[in-house]
Amino acid sequence: MPRREESLFFTSLRLCGKKITMKTLQILGTGCPKCKKLAEQTEAAAKALGIEYELEKVTDINRIMSFGVAMTPALAVDGEVKVAGKIPSIDDLKTMIA
């Protein structure tokens, strides 16, 4: 039998009979100012959409290269690269994340 905390967590993933899916948003970059800006913009877009998300900052160059990214910063949503080498507007980010 699951612990109470686990049960509450999994119960909270359903709302009004709909499954809530958490998005994994990955910022691929070295931590430069542009990478930080993309992280801020991505978080703002996710919050504006009202979605559940986890933001991960990937700074290891080998991991970044494993995504096939040649230019940073880059954004991957659920492991799929959506943009690289630029910082899109919040509206464009909302479209990429949704």
TrEMBL record:
Q: Which SUPFAM superfamilies match?
A: Thioredoxin-like
Instruction: Say which domain of life the source belongs to.
Output: Bacteria
User: Can you say what this protein is called?
Assistant: Redox-active disulfide protein 2
Q: Which InterPro entries match?
A: Thioredoxin-like_fold, Thioredoxin-like_sf, THIRX-like_proc
Q: Which organism is it from?
A: Vecturithrix granuli
The residue ranges of the Thioredoxin-like fold domain are: 24-97
